[in-house]
């Protein structure tokens, strides 16, 4: 039910943009993509719940002690982004889909759907823009509904909806 309410809010936000564009006879603009607060928070929460990058390999550049363990300089480490994104210390009730988490910026190094630092995906802003554009067109130009429960995530090389995600378009 909460997801349905969120979808209605996203649709309303996008419909307002679409109607403005229809009146002015132009397509979606860069400026408009920066003014989609509800949709943007939903996208960020989706990226938190189903991280595109599961892990990365890094090398310790200095000796580091973490929770009583020594990680010597030069050792390879593998941060698991999914574990960070699902840590209740950073994201309370982490299995709950809650876009309001992004009303304020997360603490540094707690939200890294595209990696972090100099090794972050160089296309991360483009990817988020593409998701916003696709969402705009999906909710303004099509009528559709998810068929079945549509709940759960299957983790493999990439996260996908558990059991697929059947939808009916009309």
UniProtKB/TrEMBL annotation:
Coiled coil (UniProt feature): none
Principal localisation: membrane
GO biological process, any: sterol metabolic process
InterPro entries: Cyt_P450 (IPR001128), Cyt_P450_B (IPR002397), Cyt_P450_CS (IPR017972), Cyt_P450_sf (IPR036396)
Gene Ontology MF, one: iron ion binding
GO cellular component: membrane
A family per Pfam: p450
Bilayer topology: Single-pass membrane protein
Keyword annotations of the record: Heme, Iron, Membrane, Metal-binding, Monooxygenase, Oxidoreductase, Transmembrane, Transmembrane helix
Highest taxon, organism lineage: Eukaryota
Places the protein is found: Membrane
Record bears the keyword Transmembrane helix: yes
Family in the record: Belongs to the cytochrome P450 family.
Name this polypeptide is given: Putative ovule protein
Organism whose genome encodes this protein: Solanum chacoense
